[in-house]
Design goal:
Distance between the termini: 55 Å
Oligomer: single chain
Largest sheet: none
Number of helices: 7
């Protein structure tokens, strides 16, 4: 990849992150998640880094609806679930992406598209399994200290 094309790709990824941040800022429930040290811009940049693909311009060019955000967050969610299950060391921004995915999966005003319903089901099921895994790990750590 040449320098110019690499810079161009970073430019597109940055614009993608800005669209994500703009969409996230429109939702009051989302804004309530950002009371800690990590801000929306940081999380949007991480989402863009994880979900952006130069060959896949479907999400980049689309109007950013809640349905599009759910699809983007699902891409990130799957990667983070694997990371959490294997390494158990997500940072605050990554935890926020998981929370965002769960929040968007539970929105009731999404179109009732079969693919979206399936994504919502996956996020809810995997989220529940992740919560159970974290509970088991906490219990193991507590019992080791006794």
């Amino acid at each position: 990849m040449s320098f110019i094309s690499a810079v161009g790709e970073q430019w597109h990824k940055s614009a993608f992150a800005e669209k994500i941040a703009k969409q996230l800022k429109q939702d009051s429930q989302v804004c309530q998640l950002f009371v800690g040290a990590t801000n929306i811009t940081t999380v949007a940049n991480l989402i863009a880094a994880m979900a952006y693909s130069e060959q896949d311009s479907e999400h980049q060019d689309a109007d950013f609806t809640d349905a599009v955000m759910l699809a983007i967050l699902f891409d990130c969610f799957r990667l983070l679930i694997v990371k959490q299950a294997e390494h158990d060391n997500l940072n605050q921004a990554e935890h926020l992406i998981i929370q965002l995915a769960k929040l968007y999966a539970n929105k009731t005003d999404l179109p009732q598209d079969d693919a979206l319903v399936q994504i919502q089901g996956y996020i809810n099921k995997l989220g529940q399994q992740l919560d159970e895994l974290q509970t088991q790990r906490r219990q193991q750590h507590r019992s080791m200290g006794r």
